[in-house]
Amino acid sequence: MCYVYILLCSDGSLYTGWTNDIERRFRTHSEGKASKYTRARLPVKLVYLEETENKIDAQKREWAIKKFSRKQKLELIESKSSKTDLNSTSLIK
Questions:
Q1: Residue 82 domain-assigned?
Q2: Which whole-number Å values give the CA distances from 75 to 34, 68, 69, 85, in the listed order?
Q3: Residue-level pLDDT, tens digit, the chain, 93 residues
């Protein structure tokens, strides 16, 4: 199982990525060790999470989301958050 995720950064920007271990990846982002982009924009909050069957599907979905406008990303986040409460996961502090 792989995951595509969107983080809300402290400056209000959105970061999209993929991983096969969401808890580890979120932790490394939060510690400032995952990417230069998020390191400079801590703290980050997980606002979108989508499961995929495999790495290829995750990478394709990540690329598609990265091409979205900010408005489209916010709509995606809103549509998913109405179905799933991310705040109930152990990842959100």
A1: no
A2: 26, 10, 10, 16
A3: 999 999 999 999 999 999 999 999 999 999 999 999 999 999 999 999 999 999 999 999 999 999 999 999 999 999 986 555 554 444 444
**Burial profile 41-56: b = 16 or more Cβ within 10 angstroms, e = fewer:** beebbbbbbbebeeee
> For residue 78, is it within any domain?
no
Q: 71: Cβ–Cβ under 8 A, 6 or more apart, which residues? A: none
- Tokens 């179905």 correspond to 83
Domains contained in the chain, number: 1
pTM for the whole thing? 0.87
Task: Pick the closest to residue 32 from 18, 47, 43, 17 (CA basis).
Answer: 43
Phi/psi of residue 38, each to 5°?
-75, -30
Query: Would you say residue 88 lies in a domain?
Result: no
CATH number of the domain enclosing 40: 3.40.1440.10
> Which three-class secondary structure state does DSSP give residue 64?
helix
